[in-house]
Amino acid sequence: MSEAEKKKRGVWMMIFATLFWGFMGISNRYLNEVNFQPIDIAFTRSIIGAILTTIFLLITNRSAFKVTFKGFMFCALYGIINYSIGISLYSLSVERIPIGVATVLMFSNPIWVTLLNYIFFKEKISFKKMIVILTCIFGCMCIIDIFSTGGQNLDLIGITAGVLDGVTFALQIVMPRFVEKTISKDSILLYGFWSSAICLIFFADIPRLASGIINSPNPLFYFGNVLSIGVLSTFVANTFYVNSTKYIGTSLPSMMVALEPTFATVLAFFIFGESMKPIQILGTLIVIGSVMALELNFEKIMNRLKGGSFAQ
User: Fold this and answer.
1) Which of 243, 230, 298 is nearest to 45 (CA)?
2) Which residues belong to any copy of the EamA domain (predicted)?
3) What is the DSSP letter of 183?
4) Which residues contact 88 (CB under 8 A, 6 or more apart)?
């Protein structure tokens, strides 16, 4: 496979990954109609992700099943924080605030990655990163429209859930750094999903969820949304993201994640008629631009342009 073909494959993987992530809020909102609560959706995504990841790794990487007890406990903590809590926070935010706003708040996660890396790994925050972080915070303030309303119209629970979801999303990247030499990412995903599903099964009322779908006006439609949020938005999207790095490295996928809030906002507009005020649109562009600026290595890009290739 030529370098151009590899790049094309990797780019298409990321486009589909971000598109499937963009559908999360849509499926989430539809499942709310049949009384799926945030914890119920988190359980649904976790159990489907766990089952499909198990099948996938049985075929592709059976060594991922071998971990020490200490390693398993770390994976369990990872799953509970990032999937049990993180997915629940996203579902709660989507339930209470516009999908586009919730998605952009989640997308601010690279900013939290920078801060957490400074706290835990003593990575220096450059002047450029500090400017980007401050700009992103300003963008988030525009998104929640705090300037024109004075904060009076804010759904504090929804906004807080969205911000905390961005933190847990960042922890998905930061936490594996503590064990990168001893536990594979496949093992973390595998046991993380299962730990999350086992934790949440005590809170999710499965008979009630099944009854809600079966007794709904259109059971196949709502079951399709269960599959969409579990298969496409969880398992397939994450798999595409991980595998895209084999073809286009890590920098370009990190930047292409900026497509996610765009897809989510456009889908929410066409399906639910949700719209954003001009100041919220400006805030969205500021956040996306800030994160892209954080991920860009301008010196490396110029070298690649001179060399005629973006492949790593």
Assistant:
1) 230
2) 9-143, 157-292
3) S
4) 38, 39, 41, 42
Summarize pLDDT for 195-244 with one digit per residue, the tens: 999 999 999 889 999 999 999 999 999 999 999 999 999 898 877 876 77
* CA triple 274-293-10, angle to 5 deg: 80
Residue with tokens 């892209």: 292
The answer to whether 196 touches 42, Cβ cutoff 8 Å, is yes
What is the radius of gyration, based on Cα positions, of the chain?
20
Decide if 103 contacts 93 (C-beta within 8 A).
Answer: no
pTM: predicted TM-score of the whole model, two decimal places: 0.77
Q: What is the DSSP letter of 14?
A: H
- Give the domain ranges of the chain: 3-308
Contacts of 44 (CB under 8 A, 6+ apart): 31, 36, 204, 209, 226, 229, 230
Tokens for 194, please give them: 């299962």
Among 149, 90, 152, CA closest to 279: 149
Could you give the CA distance from residue 14 to residue 5 in angstroms, rounded to a whole number?
A: 14
Cα 71 from Cα 62, distance rounded (Å) = 16
Q: Which residue has the higher pLDDT, 46 or 145?
A: 46
* Closest among 118, 24, 175, 305 to 32, alpha carbons compared: 24
Q: In the chain, what percentage of residues exceed pLDDT 90?
A: 31
Question: How many CB atoms are closer than 10 A to CB 275?
Answer: 12
Instruction: Please give the C-alpha separations between residue 170 and each of 6, 61, 223, 252, 267, in angstroms, as whole numbers.
Output: 28, 26, 30, 18, 24
Give every CB contact of residue 117 below 8 A, 6+ residues apart in sequence: 123, 174, 177
